[in-house]
Amino acid sequence: MIESLKEEFKRIYKETPQYIFFAPGRVNLIGEHTDYNGGMALPAAISQGTWLLVSPNNKNKFVLRTLNLDDYAEVLVSPHYRPTNIAWVNYPLGLISRFTQEASGNISGLNMLFSGNIPQGAGLSSSASIEMATALALNRIFQGGLEKIELVKMALEAENNFVGVNCGILDQYAVTFGEKDTALALDCSTVTHRPVPCKLGEYTLLVINTNKSRSLTESKYNERFAQCREALSLLQQESSLQSLCELSPAQFENLQYLIPDPVIARRARHVVEENARVNLAANALNKGDIELLGQLMFDSHASLRELYEVTGRELDLIVELSQRKGVAGARMTGAGFGGSAIALVHQAELKNYCCHLIKAYEKVIGYEPQIFPVKIEGGVRQL
Ligand code: GAF
């Protein structure tokens, strides 16, 4: 794999890459849409990810290419950058822009080649993976001396302010601090985590990609963000809350009357109850109680479907088809609106489950889902 990427780099740039970096994608076991509300999540980094091959050039420009798409960009080194109209380029360029503001030293041109094997639009954080590979590369090559946690925060700012998505820190954090066979009980209010060994016993964690082409995801995501902010400001009339996830479900019951709009109240209820599920799920995983973890996953999906309304027909069908013998739990993972689901399936039932799911899904939706087992691996690194 690496050798063929090096060959491609040589073919394109007529030189050998000086540096190679890898950043994984992630799955989130539970804790969805809690991160930008100061809550908990339980993500893990996966084996699929993005490779970044780089060499400094003396052309005073960043050349940004990917093997996954035809579009590429050449951007002159400058003190200020603007987003381009090539969507994927804005992820590394946002980091270059943010790093330029931060770094006191000289930033000079780079030949960059990205290549990823995370399925596109599958909700497995291909964008955070590109961002963190870029962040580590810039820090290493221009000797930024920044800690990984600072790079995570820079990437988040780049995505919020340069790309324009009001996402939380979940993806960048998981992609950076992921560890082999370990889930991260991530507290987004303190931006710290507790490692939870991912002992699944006789169960396999599967990703089921809906293969649905996603549209308007960013605007719907930002709408949910705004609804949560609205709920918080209404609750702040009677409390000194800083974020929705400071509330327990019981406290939310008592304050709910402050949110007259039923849609906004449903959004807030999801966030508060989902946050409470994360600790239960982390404890269940720690104890190897896969049945309980699975039930919490089903509950999470129901809440994302009924209260947060970010699932859709394809994801709901996958979860419905997963309510069968040998499946401990299933739910959507990531932002939703398409993307992927995850399922915990007993090894003895794996084959039956996959056959049944593929057939039944294809019959209703008109095309097949993509299914693969998750391998939990480490976070961003230089190779
Ligand atoms: C996307 C976002 F990027 C994350 O920050 C998080 O909000 C997630 O959706 C939903 O939990 O992956």
Can you offer a commentary on this structure?
This is Galactokinase. It catalyses: alpha-D-galactose + ATP = alpha-D-galactose 1-phosphate + ADP + H(+). Its EC number is 2.7.1.6. It is a single chain. This protein is an alpha+beta fold and 383 residues long. Helix content is 42%, strand content 21%. The chain has a six-stranded mixed beta sheet with strand order 5-4-6-3-1-13, with helices on both faces. It has a four-stranded antiparallel beta sheet with strand order 10-11-9-12. The chain has a three-stranded antiparallel beta sheet with strand order 2-7-8, with helices on both faces. Strand 10 and strand 11 form a beta hairpin. The two termini are 12 Å apart. The protein binds 2-deoxy-2-fluoro-alpha-D-galactopyranose (GAF). The site of 2-deoxy-2-fluoro-alpha-D-galactopyranose (GAF) has 10 residues, from helix 5. The site of 2-deoxy-2-fluoro-alpha-D-galactopyranose has 10 residues, from helix 5.
Could you give a short description of this structure?
The chain has two domains: 2-196, Ribosomal Protein S5, domain 2 (2-Layer Sandwich); 197-373, GHMP kinase, C-terminal domain (Alpha-Beta Plaits), CATH 3.30.70.
Structural class based on helices, strands and sheet pairing = alpha+beta
Beta-strand share of residues = 15-25%
Q: Under the CATH scheme, which class of the largest domain?
A: Alpha Beta
Q: Which CATH architecture of the largest domain would you pick?
A: 2-Layer Sandwich
